[in-house]
Amino acid sequence: MSQEKDARRYLIPGLERGLIILMELARSHREMSFAELAERMDFPKATAYRAVQTLEYMGFVRRHPTTGLYSLGVNVLRLGFEYVASLDLVQAGQPVIESLRDKTQCSSHIAIRDGQDVIYVARVSAANATINQVSVGTRLPAHRTSLGRMLLSGLSRSEFEAVYPDGELPDTKPGAPANREALWELVQEDGRRGYVIGESFFQFGISSVVYPVFNGQGDIEGVVSILVPVHEIPAEDREPLRAHVEEAAASISGMLGYRGGRAARQAT
Fold first, then answer.
1. Example GO molecular function term (predicted)?
2. Strand (E) or helix (H) holding 91
3. Three-state DSSP class for residue 152
């Protein structure tokens, strides 16, 4: 028996179908009619209808009372926010990034890595912020962001290749590393430096200062960053901003049990 067949033998079909519907609604970023949902599902309409009705009954799907269109329900959001709130990183870091925002007058964030994505798990906005703001739960490609580079710097070579099994990266938009090897060299430099100052790396006109947050085992648990609404950080501001972010990251790391001495990583 193949590994895939062996894994699927224990799946619960109804649960699998319900989760597929939720993922489809999440990907669409809009309300959808049942006809649209059913068209995208690879199972009978009657089965799709029962799954949607079950999800609606449990509050994971919401049906608009006027249009009849379906969207994600409040219980999906509640699950997500309760998960984020349960992270020690967020609990420890929220007051720290609020203080960081006050000191730097810049929007401040905490992010973690999920596969090839960066996920923002906490944020506070600067007063009168005019640039586009990310929200908790926003995902961005790790290889194209300063935050992602810092998160990837904690991986060994084998772990890195498990995240990016192909030589080519998911996309190579202007400014992005050309391929996996270029990204590996970049994150190695970031790791040796210990922080990233990204100037218009992901989006022109926006700079960032990023530091890693370590857990009690000395591994990178997440990152702390500030968003600076300039193409290039003025020389006189660079060192003070860097020092503030470094202090914030060290504070959170200490609360997570980190006592110095980053865990050794193997290059193989």
1. DNA-binding transcription factor activity
2. helix 88-104
3. helix
CA 46 to chain centre: 36
Give start and end residues of each alpha helix (H) in 170-210: 180-193
The string of pLDDT tens digits covering residues 106-137 is: 989 999 998 888 999 888 888 776 565 677 88
| Secondary element (H or E) of residue 118 | strand 117-124
Is 221 buried (19+), middle (13-18) or exposed (0-12) by CB count in 10 A? buried
- Please state whether beta strands 196-199 and 70-72 pair in parallel, antiparallel, or not at all (unpaired): unpaired
Amino acid at 88: D
The helix (H) or strand (E) run that includes residue 199 is strand 196-199
Q: CA-to-CA distance for 13 and 180, rounded, in angstroms?
A: 37
CA max distance for the chain: 65
Query: Is the Cβ–Cβ distance between 72 and 23 less than 8 Å?
Result: no
Backbone angles phi, psi at 248, to 5 degrees: -65, -45
Q: Which residue has the tokens 């699998």?
A: 16
The CA distance from 102 to 127, in Å, is: 9
Q: Which of 161, 143, 150, 144 is nearest to 112 (CA)?
A: 150
User: Which domains are seen in the chain, by residue range?
Assistant: 3-78 (1.10.10.10), 87-255 (3.30.450.40)
Name the DSSP letter for residue 206.
-
- Tokens linked to 60: 């994971």
